[in-house]
Write the structure tokens for this entry.
Amino acid sequence: FHETKDIRKHSYFPAEDEVLLMAATQFKVIGCLNQGDLHIMQLEETRPPFPLMQPVPIIISPPIDPTSSGK
């Protein structure tokens, strides 16, 4: 589905394997664990019924030759 971006290099907690998710990413809860003050939820990404965001196409132009006169 959506790609994540690794932010360990920018995180205050680099050992925690933190990632950024695309806005409006939707999940389904598939498991919960409650041990006192620790709550762990297992999530699965789901496809929304309609696309919320369209990817922006990346267009790569060939390099411009600075020695060319344009003719």
Q: What stands out?
A: Residues 5-46 form one domain.
